[in-house]
Amino acid sequence: MDIDDQTRVELEAAAFRRLRRHLMDDRPDVQNIDMMNLAGFCRNCLSRWFQEAANERGIAMTKDEGREAFYGMPYDDWKARNQTEASPEKQAEFEVAFRENVRGEKR
Q: Which of 2, 6, 21, 42 is at a distance of 20 to 30 A from 68, taking alpha carbons?
């Protein structure tokens, strides 16, 4: 398949918008800690990557501004509506996953 660069960028942007809509509108019940434990990334990672992409292009964007752009509202509002307290088991699983995924440590 031969796709020009502009079309590829548009397709990637469309896929990102669909992923965002799925995570924000279709499945707000899926907790960030569950995503981190299973996939090694979550909504906060996506908002940070959005912020980093803006910063790389010379667009000043803070962490909070990146989160608001991704979540479509202030992050604290989204948390209050959708986030539940993580169980001690999920927190322990996250600590192990964090060490492995971020620090490169093995179990």
A: 6
